[in-house]
Amino acid sequence: MSAPVDEDAYFSTQPPPASLPAQIAASTDFVNRHAAAGRRVVLITSGGTTVPLEKQTVRFIDNFSAGTRGATSAEYFLEAGYAVIFLHREFSLVPYARHFSHSTTGSFLDFLEEDGHGNVRSKDARMGDVLQRYTRARTEGTLLTISFVTITDYLHSLRAISRLMAPLGPRGLLYLAAAVSDFFVPESRMAEHKIQSTDVAMPADEEEFDNFDNAPRIARSKRLVIDLDPVPKFLKNLVDGWAPEGMITSYKLETDPSLLVHKARHSLGRYQHHLVIGNLLATRKWEVCFVSPGREDQWLRVGKKDGSTWTEEQVRALQAGRVPKEEPSGEIESLIIPAVRDLHDEHIKTSEARSHQ
Ligand code: PAZ
User: Fold this and answer.
1) pTM greater than 0.90
2) Domain DNA/pantothenate metabolism flavoprotein C-terminal: where (predicted)?
3) ipTM of the assembly?
């Protein structure tokens, strides 16, 4: 079993986001209010973290995640009676608005029409229902959205908010769906200014040696070699110290089907948390695998849009990571969230029984 990572070494050298005090104030109020009402609270992480290459950041490394899993899950958790802290990558998908934002073929304005007198109404039948659900979450104060950009912002916010969830005891749930960078450039090695691609601004006698021509009349491009450190694995700290009573669910993403379940089990063994949801990049909207201690692995698979059942051959193809021709009949989060909720019920029962012994 792995020992928790030394937090101080990381958090004292990587500066927190400027908004952290405001995030803490808003989350404290949110958690205390819902804890007093006996409501469950889920902290959802969503979207990808960036790895800046410069302090005054012009360039950064990013990943594919649009935040679909996190934003969709948030809606189902709200429907299931949870209050939701939605810690997401700035400008990634957010609950409710996700249905109309981020279109690759147009704009959210395409969902609206105007009658010639400045009055606007929706052209899309779903908008009324989505707006109602959004308004309910706003009115009841059950959705708090907080954003991050970099891997360091993310880790500072995750640590601060999960520590604040203590008053919830086992009624707190962490649902870690963000695609978190595994590598980063430590602050101490990060360039202050935009990394230059040529030496054009340098005095002639300071120009670097160029292995094609050591006296170029026109400055030529340089290669950029990036040296990244591994991001410390803080999940054990989360389990043991930051949110020890809450239920902790993490996602595991792979692209190689032969690794998925093995890596999910490994993660569970290493961090001793409660649930790992495995998914393959190509098929993540069709199926996921629940891996939890003392239970058989459970595959959840969404139906097909045409209503027919999956054949054995189609299931094998899915599990081999091949994108099916069939559209999913709905959102797989509609299966995932009730199943997580069932495990959370058990977690609460077990914790309460233990505390009465
Ligand atoms: O954001 P998205 O819906 O495009 O992707 C979701 C996901 C694949 C990032 C998520 O389901 C997941 O697996 N998160 C954990 C990634 C990881 O293993 O670090």
Assistant:
1) yes
2) 40-91
3) 0.99
